[in-house]
Design brief:
- The protein is an alpha+beta fold and 157 residues long.
- The protein has a single domain, classed as Porin (Beta Barrel), CATH 2.40.160.
- It is 21% helix and 45% strand.
- It is built from two helices and eight strands.
- An eight-stranded antiparallel barrel has the order 1-2-3-4-5-6-7-8.
- Strand 4 and strand 5 form a beta hairpin.
Length: 157
Amino acid sequence: MMLLVIEIFATLLVLGILSGFLRTWQIQNDEREKIFLAGTVPNPVLDGLYYGAVPGHTVSWLGKKFYAAREKGINVFSDGKGGEVEQYPFVTSVGKGLHEKNLDVLKIDYDIPGNPVWLRLVVDEVVQVAPGWYLGKLEARMIPGYPFALTYFELKQ
């Protein structure tokens, strides 16, 4: 019985890793990748509420609130009753992209106490692609040294 459980776990782990590599390949070959690579670090620094969207998907996520002076922020979601709820704080910094080592990005890191374990693996990378328009990429640090790119998202003021 224990051997069966180990085999099932190992199979699921391998499938998860393969799925991560496939998804990363899809994201890096998406038409938005060229737009992302042409982007720059947001200027001026993001401060206040930015409305979010995940093109092609319906989500309860409404956007992000940035507190530039503290290099922090929090996500904003619909509560399903016409209101909003703030969840999942993050810290921000400017640095090189996880995949694009020659590209400076705004990093949004969820690896802070209080966030769920699964979320602490996530780093968003954001670039400015036009005045008031920002393209982000959600990355998961599943394998040390090789993050998986999962999806794109947009932010607008």
